[in-house]
Amino acid sequence: MTEQLSDLDRQLINRLQDDLPLVSHPFTALGESLGLSEQEVVDRIRRLRDDGLLTRFGPFFDAEALGGAFCLCAMTVPEDRFEAVLTKVNAHAEVAHNYQRDHSLNMWFVLATENRGDIMRVAKDIEHDTGLEVLLFPKKREFFVGFRVNA
C-alpha cells in the first residue's frame, strides 16, 4: 500500500498527525506550506481515505472531559450468529467501534455515552437485543500513548 503514496501524500499524512494548524481554515494554511490549494488538500485527503490508505481522519474528543463516559465491552458470540449480533450491537448509536478477536470473548466494542449511568443502560439494552451477556471493562487509569505512523 505504501508504494501508492507519493512524497506529497506522505508529507500530508505526517502533517495531519502532528502539525494541523489550529486556525479557521487549517487546510488553506496546510496547503500553503505544501504548495497546494485548500481544495487540493481536501481532495487528496478524500482520495487517501477512499483508497483505504487512511481509515479515519477527524478529531478525537475526550468524552469524559466533556462529561461523558467510555467503557470497553466484550461478548462471547457464537460464530454462526456473529453477523446478526454485530448488526444488533452496531445499531446502538453509543457503539463507537466494534471488532472481532480470535478468543472466547470474540466481540469487543467501546460504548461512548453522554454520562456514566448510560453505560449500564446501553449494555443491558444490547443484552436484551442479543440474548448474550455484555462484559464491562471500565477504565481504571488513564494512559496517554501517542500513536503516530510515519508515512
UniProtKB/TrEMBL annotation:
Keywords linked to the UniProt accession: Lyase
E.C. number: 4.1.1.111
SUPFAM superfamilies registered for this protein in UniProt: Winged helix' DNA-binding domain
A Pfam family per the record: AsnC_trans_reg2
Pathway this chain belongs to: Porphyrin-containing compound metabolism
Domain Siroheme decarboxylase AsnC-like ligand binding as annotated: residue spans: 71-143
Regions annotated as coiled coil: none
A molecular function (GO) term: lyase activity
Source organism superkingdom: Bacteria
Catalytic activity: siroheme + 2 H(+) = 12,18-didecarboxysiroheme + 2 CO2
PROSITE patterns membership: HTH_ASNC_1
Record family assignment: Belongs to the Ahb/Nir family.
Protein known as: Siroheme decarboxylase NirG subunit
